[in-house]
Amino acid sequence: MSDWRNRITIDPGKMSGKACIRGMRFSVQDVLDYLAGGMTMDEMLAEFPYLEREDLQAALAYAAERERRTRILAA
C-alpha cells in the first residue's frame, strides 16, 4: 500500500494520539502486536469484522515508513 494516509489517523484526543485505523480505537500497534503474535491477516479479519484487509496493509505501510525514518543519534 503506497498511501496509508487514507486509513491511518492520529488524533491527540483518541488513544493518547496513537496512530489508529480509520479513527477507530484500534491502533497500528494493535495490528503489529497481533501479527507478531502469530495471528494471520485472515484470522484478524475474522476476529475483528470492522477491519478491512486494506487497513492491515496500511498499518504495515505506516510502520515501515516510521522505521525508515528512525535514526539513532550518537551521544
Notes on the structure:
It is built from three helices and two strands. The protein has 75 residues and is mostly helical. It has a single domain, classed as Winged helix-like DNA-binding domain superfamily/Winged helix DNA-binding domain (Arc Repressor Mutant, subunit A, Orthogonal Bundle). A two-stranded antiparallel sheet has the order 1-2. Helix 1 packs across helix 3. It is globular, with a radius of gyration of 13 Å. 19% of the residues are buried. InterPro entries: DUF433, Homeodomain-like_sf, WH-like_DNA-bd_sf. This is DUF433 domain-containing protein. Pfam families: DUF433 (PF04255). It comes from Vineibacter terrae.
Characterize the biggest β-sheet.
2 strands, antiparallel
- Tell me the name of the CATH class: Mainly Alpha
CATH overall fold name: Arc Repressor Mutant, subunit A
Order of helices and strands: EEHHH
Radius of gyration (Å): 13 Å
Give the proportion of residues in helices: 40-55%
| Termini Cα gap | 36 Å
Shape, per Cα inertia axes: globular
The total strand number stands at: 2
Fraction of residues in β-strands: 5-15%
Strand order of the largest sheet: 1-2
Q: What is the domain total for the residues? A: 1
CATH superfamily: Winged helix-like DNA-binding domain superfamily/Winged helix DNA-binding domain
Number of helices: 3
Briefly note the structural class of the backbone. mainly alpha
CATH architecture: Orthogonal Bundle
Mean pLDDT: 93
Low-pLDDT sequence parts: none
Organism: Vineibacter terrae
Protein name: DUF433 domain-containing protein
Pfam family, one: DUF433
